[in-house]
Amino acid sequence: MGSSASGGNRARRTWARTASIGAVVLVAGLVPGTGTGAVIAVDEGVRPVRADFGYRCALPGGTHPARVRVAAALPRQVAAGRPVRPADVRVAVELPAEAVARLAATGATTAHGAVRLAGRVTQGTDSADLPWTQLTAPDRALPATGPHTVEGAGAVPAVTASSGGDLTFSTGPVTLDLLLRRADNTPTAPPGLSVTCEPETGQDLAIGRVAVLAVPGADERPPAVDEPPPGVDEPAPPGGRGGATPPGPARPPAAGEDPGRRAGPADECVELPPTTQDPVPSHGWIAGFANVLKLGSAMYIKDPGLMKVGMAKATQTYQCPRDDGLVFTMYSDATFSYGGKPQLPPVPSTFLTFGFMPTTATAELTLDAPMEIATGSYFSPDGQFSEVTKGTAKLWVRLRDVKVNGTPLDVGPACRTARPMDLSLTGRGWYDAEGRPHGYTVVTGGPLTGTATIPEFSGCGVTEDLDRLFTAALSGGGNHVKMTQGVLCSPGQPEFCPDPPKPKPER
Amino acid sequence: MRRITRISAISAAALLAAAGVSATTASAAPQAQWTVSNPAANDAFTATNVAAANAVLTNVTTGATITCSVYAASGTAVDGVYASGAGLATIGSATFGTSTTKCNGPLGSKWVSQSVQPMKLNGVSYGSGVTKGTLTGIKVTLTGTSLLGTCNATIEGSANTGTYTNASGVLEIVPDATPALTVTSASGSCAGLIKTGDKAKFGAKYQVTPIITVTSP
Q: What does UniProt give as the signal peptide span (chain B) (predicted)?
């Protein structure tokens, strides 16, 4: 292992051996055997790696040296094409005493926040950026004197190498974004502190290496980095049953059915082009829950939002040899309406950020463009109708009135996601032999479920940039959403006009 | 456009149970003489749906389907000897769906339908107590309501794959392999599911009362 040349740098120590620290997790990766169709198991041998580096950090008043320790669990080897997602990632930045003294001088007694590491992943001559942006550091008391370590932990993207050869994970610039609080829980002025640290030159920046075993026939491409990482493992997609309804003889649509495409061999049916129709104006109310997976908390859209639907703006039929299955697809679009804007009523929310610190905020969810909706109507061999409705929308998420553990934080007037959040909702329902609806149907509404990925934030902060803090705390995928739509007021159902009932959201 | 060349198996099992019914129409020459015997003094009959046998109307052009669990008909079958199989019985009125039990269509739509002119039941071939024949002069109006609004349509034509069984008094109409019904008008909020010019087929299974006996020659 190399040691650094210039003075003042600490020697780099890297452990890359089967650990006596903690458990060793064996993960079997399956590799296709050559030409036989059999698979062979590769013992990936996940083991902890740890590396210490010397950095220089820019703080008010000058640059100071600091130690950064990066730890993760990496496999020893993987087959090419298999993603490598480092686990148990921790980046600890030890701020020297002088820096801590400056923080104490502002009256700060606790600090929490986000740690961001802009690393690299290298294989041979190919390399890619390795952004670790979702590491959060929980609230810790600041000492009166002496150094202080801020440790961020969280999910990181997976890296997939398509060709054989060592995959090296290396460190790079580290940014600390801290929110400070005084003993009386009031914010310091300014409320936060950003510290940028660069690795000292002349040291080995490798955190750890993974041996990649070549797979015959794989195409050789540079390593690819996932984007963005989920909060935790993505939950399984919502099941095939529609809503919380009692089981009945009727068959709800299977999980695989997609309203825009027929299940089964593509050449079975002739898909006629969609025919434009005059959209039928309808409206109704929608309310529900959005989980923010990373924080284990739910955003409760309790005040139902008004949804205006242009129903059946196009329909599409299919000519198939069989009479069952997807009969036709109805295309609609919808917008929200609140205070003259295409948004849901603002949602007061509470999140547990940075290690269980309650943060309250009001979230504004605004449509970027109308939601596109496809409803597939199916006919089953036993004479039952069922339908699957899929809505896709792009929603801006803007945060305001933020309080961290009761301390107000001025995020400014434009603290929102850098781009709209992609939301996809699916509702499944069926009609029983008496023609009564169950689950979600366009006619009677019901539950729609889906997942959303929250993009990174931008425009947050007034006196300083708080984007990284919100990104670390909130951004990511796997956020489960369950909305409940009420019955629509539409020309065919005048009994629900002009004020259709507001739904009680189902959990 | 692909031609549908085989009988589909969509609706209630009853329609599937039409054993031995071929898809041909009028393949046998009408037999010389037919005898109809109706126990009713006034030559009338009524017909109601066989339990659990749905009537299914399929628009083969669009794939849209309507199913009815309650349907009925009434007409006359006059005793006598007929020189050919044409017009052995007349259905004066046929209804599909009632105001309390409407027919079901896609997206929760509800439908009712009734005939607007008498239809003729014609015998084509006979064997072992079973008559194979056709139903001609069909003209029905169809009214459907859905959340989109109301759709009105008229369908005309014939159903060419029917059987009547003397022993049970069951009249069964199996959807034609070659659809013989045409949508002659469609208006209102039909959302492209039923359009003028669409071809359609239908199936139903009736219990005829009283049981009429048909033989040939």
A: 1-28
Q: In 3D, which of A338, A310, A341 has the Cα closest to residue A442?
A: A310
What range defines the domain where residue B145 resides?
30-215
- Please tell me the distance from the alpha carbon of residue B6 to that of residue B23, in angstroms, as a whole number: 8
Q: Which structural domain range is residue A388 located in? A: 270-496
Residues A306 and A189 in one domain: no
Would A97 be classed as within a structural domain? Answer: yes
Rounded to two decimals, the ipTM of the complex is 0.73
If we measure between CA atoms, which residue out of B212, B202, B171, B174 comes closest to residue B50? B171
In terms of average pLDDT, the best of A27-36, A198-207, A318-327 is A198-207
Is A384 within 8 Å of A358 (Cβ atoms)?
Answer: no
A310 touches chain B (CB under 8 A): no
How far does Cα A360 stand from its chain's mean position? 20
Of the candidates B207, B120, B122, the one whose C-alpha atom is nearest the C-alpha of residue B167 is B207
Longest dimension (CA), chain A: 84
* DSSP-derived secondary structure for A66-113: EEEEEEEEEESEEETTSEE--EEEEEEEEE-HHHHHHHHHTTEEEEEE
β-partners of residue A290 are A299, A481
Domain count, chain B: 1
Question: How many domains does one find in chain A?
Answer: 2
B40-49 pLDDT, tens digit each: 999 999 999 9
For residue A78, is pLDDT > 80? yes
Identity of the residue in B6, B12, B192 whose CB atom sits nearest the CB atom of A317: B192
Interface residue of B5, B10, B102, B147 to substitute, partner A, most A CBs within 10 Å: B147
